[in-house]
């Protein structure tokens, strides 16, 4: 019997478990650890609450989770409750699938000012992550600036722009919905260092901005390259640029009747945040593209900013005793191998890139590495050994059956039309298990 520990219960973790089952059938025992009492990681806390169809992938993970040789081990902080080295002593292979839950630093003068957030915190706030539930962003100003040209920037913009009716069917947490409905934001500026041809926004997500009831997105036609240049783009980016062209063609008379402005500011690099105690404006330098890079032109201007959300990427959280690549913001690894018997997968391996589905071949790839490195079944204690350790340390393990009780409680407390109302406090999650 092979014993595998997977640290992280998001997409990369469950795809890795699925791959291990296909590789070894019943001759493998898999424990999936998570620091929270609830599974699914990025799906629960990163995917936008109004994208419920994407969250449906958890049904596939549940099939894996309910298998006889897979166990969810929630409420265990690896690196605190148990070290990676200790897990390596208990399991034949340890796979780190912890994702990239930290924001890439904005690293600008004034980034310490109030009402300046990274997307990990802001998205975690409206998605009910216990670490960010008490964030309390102030939405009483007039202008919000969203820095970034990827899908997360689109998510943040869309969430700030929607009406209560547009959140029907979503699982946005109640405290965030109430705050958003009290917002006085009148203008949202999406700030990008480069131009329309360099955006990382996908067509579906970008197209959603064109269907907001309170706003019609604005693109300056002068920022758009010649139409003939679109032919050189990859098909997905070409479709996204087509959306930008359609936004640029929206008549101003149509926008005049709408209470909210959403505008793209291309070729605009943030250089500093301005304010006293709380952000009031952002200093921006106009850029031009040289060899695909944004280069400053020396032309500066300021944008009023009562709220700033930086959506410029994520980093993996280091774990004591595990080699870490600070520059890349992920575990130091060679195609998934970190140390003998220690591996990483997903964003923890390659950084925050690709879609949810990208993690499936990644999971199968790391299991192939383990199969190469471990052609014979190991002799480590695995699950029984960890259970003995947990009993000795009085660790309170949350199982998948326990999670299902939490899920039932969240569904029971949902507002009308919502699939659930998430618990945002770990203590409340634990108490729901015993109800």
What does this protein structure show overall?
The chain is an alpha/beta fold and 435 residues long. The protein has two domains: 2-101 and 316-398, 3-Layer(aba) Sandwich (Rossmann fold); 104-313, 3-Layer(bba) Sandwich (FAD/NAD(P)-binding domain). Helices cover 32% and strands 21% of the residues. It has 16 helices and 19 strands. The chain has helices at residues 11-24, 42-45, 52-55, 58-65, 84-90, 119-127, 151-161, 174-181, 203-208, 235-248, 252-255, 347-350, 359-373, 383-393, 400-412, 426-433; strands at 2-7, 28-33, 70-73, 93-96, 102-103, 116-118, 143-147, 187-191, 217-218, 261-265, 268-276, 278-290, 293-304, 307-310, 314-315, 324-325, 330-331, 337-339, 342-344. A six-stranded mixed β-sheet has the order 3-2-1-4-19-18, with helices on both faces. Strands 6-14-7-8-10-9 form a six-stranded parallel β-sheet. Strand 1, helix 1 and strand 2 (28-33) form a beta-alpha-beta unit. Helix 1 (11-24) packs across helix 13 (359-373) and helix 15 packs across helix 16. The protein is globular. The two termini are 36 Å apart. The model has no long low-confidence stretch (mean pLDDT 96).
């Amino acid at each position: 019997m092979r014993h595998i520990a997977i640290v992280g219960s998001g997409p990369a973790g469950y795809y890795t478990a699925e791959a291990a089952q296909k590789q070894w059938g019943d001759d493998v025992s898999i424990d999936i650890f998570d620091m929270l009492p609830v599974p699914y990681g990025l799906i629960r806390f990163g995917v936008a609450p109004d994208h419920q169809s994407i969250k449906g992938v958890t049904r596939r993970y549940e099939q894996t989770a309910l298998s006889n040789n897979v166990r969810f081990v929630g409420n265990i902080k690896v690196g605190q409750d148990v070290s990676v080295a200790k897990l390596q002593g208990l399991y034949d292979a340890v796979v780190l699938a912890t994702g990239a839950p930290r924001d890439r630093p904005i690293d600008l003068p004034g980034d310490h000012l109030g009402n300046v957030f990274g997307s990990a915190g802001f998205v975690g706030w409206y998605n009910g992550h216990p670490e960010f539930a008490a964030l309390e962003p102030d939405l009483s100003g007039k202008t919000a600036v969203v820095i970034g040209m990827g899908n997360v920037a689109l998510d943040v913009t869309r969430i700030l722009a929607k009406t209560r009716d547009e959140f029907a069917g979503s699982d946005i947490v109640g405290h965030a919905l109430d705050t958003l409905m009290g917002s006085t934001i009148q203008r949202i500026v999406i700030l990008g260092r480069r131009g329309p041809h360099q955006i990382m926004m996908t067509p579906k997500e970008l197209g959603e901005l064109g269907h907001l009831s309170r706003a019609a997105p604005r693109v300056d036609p002068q920022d758009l390259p010649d139409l003939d240049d679109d032919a050189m783009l990859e098909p997905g980016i070409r479709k996204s640029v087509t959306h930008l062209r359609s936004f640029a063609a929206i008549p101003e008379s149509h926008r005049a009747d709408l209470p909210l402005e959403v505008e793209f500011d291309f070729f605009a690099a943030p250089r500093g945040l301005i304010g006293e105690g709380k952000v009031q404006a952002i200093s921006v330098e106009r850029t031009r593209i040289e060899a695909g890079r944004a280069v400053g032109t020396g032309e500066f201007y300021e944008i009023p900013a009562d709220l700033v959300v930086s959506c410029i990427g994520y980093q993996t959280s280091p774990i004591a005793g595990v080699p870490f690549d600070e520059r890349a913001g992920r575990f130091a690894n060679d195609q998934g191998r970190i140390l003998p018997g220690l591996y990483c997968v997903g964003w923890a391996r390659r950084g925050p890139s690709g879609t949810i589905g990208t993690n499936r071949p990644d999971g199968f790839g790391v299991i192939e590495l383990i199969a190469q490195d471990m052609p014979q079944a190991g002799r480590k204690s695995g699950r029984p050994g960890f259970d003995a350790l947990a009993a000795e340390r009085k660790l309170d393990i949350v199982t998948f059956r326990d999670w299902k009780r939490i899920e039932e409680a969240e569904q029971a407390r949902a507002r009308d039309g919502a699939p659930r109302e998430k618990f945002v406090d770990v203590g409340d999650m634990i108490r729901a298990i015993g109800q």
